[in-house]
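RECORD CONTENTS
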Amino acid sequence: MSDRSSMSFRIVAGLIASAMCAAATSHAQTIGPTQSIDHDGDPFARAERIEACLRDSGSASPEALRLCGRQTTCPKTAVASRPIQLNWRDGEAHPAWTTNDRARLTDLGSARLAELLERHTGTHRVNSDAQAAMMTVETRFSGTDSAHREVGDWVKMPREVTLTLRLQRAGTSEVIGEHTVQARMPIGIRPYQRETSSATWLQRSLDELQRGASNLLDTYACEPVVFPFIKTPKGRLSLDLRGLRQVQPGLRVLLVPTTGVASAEPYAVARITHVEPGLYAQLDAISGDLNGCTNGDCVAVAL
């Protein structure tokens, strides 16, 4: 054995010894409120709570509507499916990470999140929509690259990947919630065959990413669905359903004036009577009347 090969063998042996009993680890952290999922009770009682809260705040701003309309327990069946875009941002290449490993993480991670968006209550995935919220994943790769080629042929050096998941509101950079996943792979023997998609570090990372995304979507589901008003081609005042799916006739809504929120006039409650999917929904008043919204200076909060 040459002196160079002998030295490489000793380095490999030492590295292997230091890696005994090591295993891939992952760490996850979610930033954002969590809620239990249950029914929220009587819609008319909820309408009274929302109205009282908005009158106290003196505002019908998007922030006030979210605060006052937020449910303490979320419905098991969403009143509407809201659009979300998925944006996976690959981090810069790192010598400790192979192109294959980075590609598997991107492909499998994107597929899992896309599937989750489609099956989660109250959301669906869109490729492009100005009215859609944005779910973004940013990856950052780091690690130690072997200075000895012979060592690199035998040993996988320590490395780490951090995935930062954010859910942001449509048209703004406001973050609804954030979840971070960190996967650390210790030093170890390089396998004879290329690792598959069942690698421990990869599956743990994907599981944590999916769990975090599900929690963020649960948080989003607790926020009220707010409909703007539009005029139909026939001039009838209706709810704007563009970007939304699964809105059904019979849904009750609270009509909130965007000006004069604190006025003494009671807010009207209406029922959706007809739906043109993806376009508009027509209303009939249950209490109060719709005349106060004829100029479009109202929004409707789903009850």
Summary: The chain is about 30% helix and 30% strand.
